[in-house]
Design goal:
The structure is a single chain. By secondary structure, this protein is an alpha+beta fold. It has a single domain, classed as 2-Layer Sandwich (Pantoate--beta-alanine Ligase, Chain: A,domain 2), CATH 3.30.1300. Helices cover 44% and strands 30% of the residues. A four-stranded antiparallel beta sheet has the order 1-2-3-4, covered by helices on one side. A hairpin with a 5-residue loop joins strand 2 and strand 3. The longest helix has 51 residues.
Length: 133
């Protein structure tokens, strides 16, 4: 029996080491890109959650101000902290009548930056003895 021709032996061999290395590089680049996009989407979800909470908190504070005019009597600042979120309410008289300007701010620390939501509104606060309009 004679040995098989050289060309047949070359066809039966497996993949070259270079092909395996190239396949591993392509696979690792693809997995790296997937992991990066996953971490970016988690960070974006956290940012959206922070802004959503801040907007809801600002809305609640504004409703409290509208319903409780005592919070707007005189001028001054009020601040408090809810977990990692800080709130500040600043109100002052705009006219000798009963017009008040109030600024409500909710902010938090995002890494080294300070992020937040700020809302400014005008309120009519009836003077004592004056009926609401």
């Amino acid at each position: 029996m004679s040995p098989p021709p050289i060309k047949e032996i070359e066809k039966k061999q497996g993949m070259l080491l270079l092909e395996v290395i190239v396949a591993m590089v392509v696979l690792s680049v693809g997995l790296t890109m997937m992991m990066r996009s996953f971490s970016i989407s988690i960070k974006a979800a956290r940012v959206v959650q922070n802004y959503f909470y801040a907007v809801v908190r600002v809305e609640n504070l504004v409703w409290d101000l509208e319903e409780n005019y005592a919070g707007l009597q005189g001028e001054g600042k009020r601040s408090d902290m809810y977990g990692e979120y800080q709130t500040a309410v600043d109100s002052f008289d705009l006219s000798p009548q009963a017009l008040k300007k109030s600024t409500v701010e909710v902010y938090w620390q995002e890494g080294k930056r300070r992020e937040g939501v700020k809302f400014t509104s005008l309120f009519y606060v009836p003077l004592p003895g004056e009926s609401e309009r």
